[in-house]
Design goal:
Blueprint (H helix, E strand, L loop, with lengths): L62 H6 L1 E2 L1 E5 L5 E2 L5 E5 L6 H6 L1 E5 L5 E7 L2 E6 L8 E6 L11 E2 L3 E7 L3 E6 L4 E6 L2 E7 L15 E4 L2 E3 L2 E4 L15 E4 L2 E3 L6 E4 L17 E3 L1 H10 L5 E5 L18 H6 L5
Parallel strand pairs: 1-9, 3-10, 11-21, 19-20
Antiparallel strand pairs: 2-4, 4-7, 5-8, 6-7, 8-10, 11-12, 12-13, 14-21, 15-18, 16-17, 18-19
Length: 331
């Protein structure tokens, strides 16, 4: 069932500033309930087929471009100059299907201040994703140099324009959410900086189970509007109906999972899982975590029986390196 979607602010903006990331995904899993019955977000970012960072799906090729038989880069994630987490992928979206994936991949050059091994995976003939074999080193400076003008196939289709994009990796921030002990631990540059009690998905069915595995922060918003529409409850007269604003929401999947402030479940945090899928935290911790989070920060969830799909948001680290390398067009 498709739900109305709301803009999710990009990382680095002040709370309550509306800047769209990407919004298209159907609501599949949801956020938290305590005794009051809070649930999940209407505000979702990123389709499974990789988000762009212009707030929309890739635009169709221009008529002029079709006639000229050219293609171009229509979007790159991260943004120019963005500071990202150590798990952040590079996502390149093209204006139309590329003539030769191998030829294009050869001109997608990734330069690093401290070279590490990495590789491209083609999600489709219009989208390729790059990630390192292991997380980026903190402080790494990365430049994507897409030299599309060097590409021209036998049919005459050619790249229209070269594109360069540079960004930087910030602190090596890794959070571990243990759904069995009901604790969340945040480490930066190898040192634990904070732990907190949490409450995760209550389970009972997959829809109420927090996804297990390596997530990345995709965006954040303060506030996010959460409603009961995902349960099919839209009538305000229904006792299960709600629509309210949730503070300090850090998104970790495109299926509606957030780490967010949940004052209504503080009594359960550290003791029991009572949410419909999100990670509930106390207001003080949630505000602190929100302030530090950047796209690409690693959030590892353990202890549940519902694995995060690698196509869910930035779930690319769920795919083993050998399989990831097999997605390259260059042999």
């Amino acid at each position: 069932m498709l739900h109305r979607v709301l803009a999710v602010p990009a990382l680095g903006v002040r709370p309550r500033t509306a800047v769209a990331l990407v919004l298209l995904a159907p609501v599949l899993a949801g956020c938290g309930e305590g005794s009051g019955g809070l649930d999940r977000a209407d505000a979702l970012a990123a389709p499974a087929a990789a988000p762009t960072d212009d707030g929309s799906t890739p635009a169709p090729p221009r008529l002029k471009e079709m006639r000229a038989r050219t293609f171009r880069v229509s979007a790159v994630t991260p943004r120019e100059g963005e500071v990202v987490g150590i798990g952040m992928p590079i996502i390149v979206t093209f204006s139309r299907p590329v003539p030769s994936r191998a030829a294009v991949e050869r001109v997608l050059r990734v330069r690093m201040s401290r070279p590490v091994r990495g590789g491209w995976y083609w999600l489709s003939s219009r989208q390729a994703v790059y990630r390192p074999r292991r997380y980026w080193p903190g402080g790494e400076r990365i430049t994507l140099d897409a030299r599309l003008k060097d590409v021209k196939d036998a049919s005459g289709m050619a790249g229209a324009k070269n594109v360069t994009r540079s960004f930087r990796v910030g602190r090596a921030r890794i959070s571990v959410v243990n759904t069995r002990t009901h604790r969340m631990r945040v480490s930066e540059n190898g040192r634990v900086v904070r732990t907190t009690p949490i409450s995760a998905g209550r389970g009972g069915k997959l829809a109420y189970t927090t996804t297990n595995g390596i997530h990345l922060v995709m965006g954040k918003s303060d506030p996010v509007v959460m409603t009961s529409a995902w349960m099919g409850v839209t009538d305000p007269k229904n006792p299960r109906y709600y629509k309210l604003k949730v503070r300090y929401a850090v998104q970790i999947s495109s299926s509606g999972e957030y780490v967010h402030s949940a004052p209504w479940s503080v009594g359960s945090q550290g003791r029991a899982n009572v949410s419909h899928g999100c990670v509930n935290a106390g207001p003080s911790f949630a505000a602190w975590y929100y302030g530090r989070s950047q796209r690409g920060d690693v959030v590892i969830v353990t202890g549940t029986n519902r694995p995060l799909a690698w196509t869910n948001g930035y779930g690319y680290w769920q795919m083993p390196w050998k399989r990831w390398k097999a997605g390259s067009a260059v042999r």
